[in-house]
Amino acid sequence: MKNLKIGRLEHGFRNSITDVPGVTVGHCTVDTEYHKTGVTVVMPCQDDMFKNKLVAACHVLNGFGKTAGLMQIQELGTLETPIALTNTLNVGLVHDAMVEHMALQAERNGYSIRSVNPVVCECNDASLNDIRNRAVTQKEVFRAIESASPAFLEGDVGAGKGMTCHGLKGGIGSSSRVIEIGGEKFTVGVLVLTNHGSTSDLVIEGEKVGEQIDRALHCDAPDKGSCIMILATDLPVTDRQLGRIIRRMSVGLARLGSYIGHGSGEVMVGFSTANRVPDDGAMMNYRCIHENQINAAFRAAAEATEEAVVRSMLAAQTVRSWDGTVRRSLKEFWNPQA
Amino acid sequence: MKNLKIGRLEHGFRNSITDVPGVTVGHCTVDTEYHKTGVTVVMPCQDDMFKNKLVAACHVLNGFGKTAGLMQIQELGTLETPIALTNTLNVGLVHDAMVEHMALQAERNGYSIRSVNPVVCECNDASLNDIRNRAVTQKEVFRAIESASPAFLEGDVGAGKGMTCHGLKGGIGSSSRVIEIGGEKFTVGVLVLTNHGSTSDLVIEGEKVGEQIDRALHCDAPDKGSCIMILATDLPVTDRQLGRIIRRMSVGLARLGSYIGHGSGEVMVGFSTANRVPDDGAMMNYRCIHENQINAAFRAAAEATEEAVVRSMLAAQTVRSWDGTVRRSLKEFWNPQA
Amino acid sequence: MKNLKIGRLEHGFRNSITDVPGVTVGHCTVDTEYHKTGVTVVMPCQDDMFKNKLVAACHVLNGFGKTAGLMQIQELGTLETPIALTNTLNVGLVHDAMVEHMALQAERNGYSIRSVNPVVCECNDASLNDIRNRAVTQKEVFRAIESASPAFLEGDVGAGKGMTCHGLKGGIGSSSRVIEIGGEKFTVGVLVLTNHGSTSDLVIEGEKVGEQIDRALHCDAPDKGSCIMILATDLPVTDRQLGRIIRRMSVGLARLGSYIGHGSGEVMVGFSTANRVPDDGAMMNYRCIHENQINAAFRAAAEATEEAVVRSMLAAQTVRSWDGTVRRSLKEFWNPQA
Amino acid sequence: MKNLKIGRLEHGFRNSITDVPGVTVGHCTVDTEYHKTGVTVVMPCQDDMFKNKLVAACHVLNGFGKTAGLMQIQELGTLETPIALTNTLNVGLVHDAMVEHMALQAERNGYSIRSVNPVVCECNDASLNDIRNRAVTQKEVFRAIESASPAFLEGDVGAGKGMTCHGLKGGIGSSSRVIEIGGEKFTVGVLVLTNHGSTSDLVIEGEKVGEQIDRALHCDAPDKGSCIMILATDLPVTDRQLGRIIRRMSVGLARLGSYIGHGSGEVMVGFSTANRVPDDGAMMNYRCIHENQINAAFRAAAEATEEAVVRSMLAAQTVRSWDGTVRRSLKEFWNPQA
């Protein structure tokens, strides 16, 4: 994917959400005869985030979905757990596993938890995965957390194993952008779980790639499914500013041809590592950008999302389900070097 | 509770959410040495609601909570599962149990489910319940569903077992009001799970009951915890109209002395049984009230919520936890007949 | 009004929104044969607020109204003009007058304005005022601004001249509360323009005052009209925190018996003088309270709003319109000293 | 503009918002030495819409703007006046003129108006227009209303006279799409007032037109300004469904290269002529599409908006302001036939 060049901003060292210092990502993939599914965990920091919460924001572009945990982010503007991504019917078990993870971590750190707000996002992989029998249990969630690292795979891994994007194989993708405000450099990183769009609508950098593929495959799918978009940044922002930034992630989807179909949960969650909110206190100080500087972050969010979606497709291998359904990889049809 | 008279509208036959035809409520209470908790399920209809969804709305008055399933109600204006209420850390397991319930019901009805949006609401009962060890599993959820009936207990039962309201024993309460629009009679029913408020703030029908109790008990609590408010009606309304109606439920809380404290998940969910949305189709017809008639429903929502909260407290018995914490019943201090 | 005592917090020196340092209020009343109307202006600070904006928030409890200027507050979390209150059909002319005021002030300060967001709130005084012929022009707005002072009248003055509250004479009311956070004292001040509620629903401090008056007057009105609620504070808060605080103003209305009727524009606007946002810059620092301290401000907002509404009615004189409609003063029927 | 072909759906007869039966558009342009501004009015129907309101919805994509009248649409889901578009500082006077227009119309129809909610949208034309001196008065608004017709000009006319889009001359553009649901044909029409975007970001149908123009002009502008998007349809929808449809209009902006900059009021307003809401009544019947059919309307909204923006630029002539500022027409640089 060296030559894919979307937008005009520079990307970070890894061109990944993990370019934001402290952020790691872990997967656990369930790849059996009947199951093509899994869980992916975005770890926003390496210390105890329940005791030092992160400024956060969320936005629902299309709410046909089952994501849990947004209500409290909306009210309090903070994130207190890692973000887990999985399949639609596994939200409950993954939610429970995240509660257990947070309780265990608290106990290791000498306190106990009586309330915690896990954030669990989902897309529906039922076309490749036997979703009825929930394959992601506490074991898989804990493995994903343990495996979290700055270097992680993209494509058909973790929660991305069974996803379908623009009728082709979707999954996990990531990208980043570096911006400069007030003489300082900051990173905006994006991770997406892609499961949306129809084949014929796919446009990459102005090229009507989807129409070409559709003519070859004769199997256009309706714009169904979802896209989960996670944004991390070390830019100091308030939760309101962050909310404005993540709303620009939709621009990336639209440029690739999606019109944000009905059957989707298009959900954005963002966090900033620059201000931490301690568990208690009387007065606090926030550092944040002046609103007039925010356009750089808007552009970064739009560009990184667009690129992350393409990367999720280019990194994915063709996947075949037990009943013969096949989702082919974009790279069989289109290649950025070409 | 015969002589409690809040507001000016008539209540329904049972003075309960189940006065709305088709609505039933079931509990499963977990009452062991360490656990004072449970699950309560509101069943909005007796037929297959996944195939014939109900018009629904939700509103978050204060979002410090973990309720799951609101995002899709907000987007689509429909409810497709029963509503489950439980303790904070049990949301995940109850969510998974609701998925299983819906999948089994679908299979009994000859189809399979690949996506479903359970609505799971919660309050935090950690002061009486060992919340760390999730005591509500699939078994308890299924029992609650099986036990659902128009006649159900209020007070310290089901999800209400470990709840605390205005420093006293809270739990499940219900009430209803009958209104007339265009010559027809309709019912507005409310069920609440009460876990909010401080003792000294409690005011009932203008009487500063809480200050008196506080002087006796010397143990005022901060306004912490949550209140879940479910509204059912057979009034034909659009989801937007229903959203306006449920927002008036906050009036009931305020009149009892709550100022809607920070540490709360004050969440409203409402549904109407008057318009059903089939699984598929091209065009539909909605019947709905003219907006000019909506005040009757506003008043009903406010009154029934106020009364339901008081009933949750009057119906509850004093409960003692394993560590000696006691939540006393309001009826030890105050009685509507007096 | 010396003996009216609502809630448990102390009020400020004047028991007024102007207890928040820097805040002033001005009126211009139009009292002619056909017109009982006017304009009231809340000045949030004494320096150039376009160049140093105030942190602000707004909330719409019931949006049947014509208030202008909220969209930008919602997006940017700042207020850049005084807040004007007037009658429903005068929003346009008052909006234009506020543009002119800001343009003139800018020119006096050596710059020019090409964009500005006036906030103009309204209630409908058509039952006492010939609203069709807009009586509030630029002249009245400028007079109100010029007359702004920490000491101002309440009741049937300014925008309050023609308003009706709970079927009695409403208008302008104000109150304040002093809270302590982290060893520092802060003020929460409220100003309301009251034009809502039905007579028989009015309850003051638990006393069913409205039912008594209704029996005497035989003229209950439906719960129609609106209530505009302005909150000022010197508490350092983010716009999100301020949004949470102003949402508690609804508690004050509910405790007085309103169920927030359909035909109302119940609108809250709040600002904090503690953090100013300069016109330009790269990075900023906000000071704000820790969320765990916010309950004190919630209680203050609820209490001050409840008291401000009662004061708007107690301060108002009986007003008679050209067509013989009479709105009598609450003080003819009820008195806090009694 | 014959050969411009955006998207895959058919456009209506005029390829205009007025393809929706009953919709007309009128302009009044103020073109003097110092003023390049005006007002454009979208008339949703030809009968008395105050007495028979239209189902409506609005959405704020970026709220840095002064649009008035959205709050009531949000609450009640109806539109009761034409929609006026003008420059930023003229919102007040145009608002007042719309009140007068509605009052006069009511009097002609034998009733009087005591409350009405004009919808006035704006973009900032201060780079070409002496915005400080409000040039749009009641006279211009009345002329725009009187001139309303199914055939109307696009480009630098009416409110579009002084607007700048992607650094070139923007203004008024329109387009439509025809969709089929349940065997019936419906029209989705869009009208935009374009004043957003930077030159170098402009992409048309995948061609990086903006970069080419920027190399020629050496004058890239920041992504500032606004875009007002009005959608009309004869599709029977509820206000919630309409809200979902208009949110897809942002897709059109993104595909042309905008990332929805900070300094913008990106505002969508939509109405449906298929269900009318009478002034009074007890029960109503709505006809509406089944949600599963909504994707066709989503695609139509996205395509028509994208095309309307391009048309606003292609129809506009180069405009020069009194101080020498020039906004050149896109057609000097790019032509769809080429």
Question: What does this 3D model show about the protein?
Answer:
The structure is a homotetramer of 338-residue chains. The first copy, chain A, contains 7 helices and 15 strands. With 338 residues, chain A is α+β, with helices and mostly antiparallel strands. A 6-stranded mixed β-sheet of chain A has the order 4-3-12-11-10-9, with helices on both faces. In chain A, strand 1 and strand 2 form a beta hairpin. Chains in contact: A-B, A-C, A-D, B-C, B-D, C-D. The B-D interface holds B 75-77, 181-183, 236, 238-240, 244, 277-278, 280-293 and D 75-77, 181-183, 236, 238-240, 244, 277-278, 280-293. Strand 13 of chain A pairs antiparallel with strand 13 (283-289) of chain C.
Which features does this protein show?
homotetramer; 7 helices; alpha+beta; 338 residues; 23% helix; 6-stranded mixed β-sheet; 4-stranded mixed β-sheet
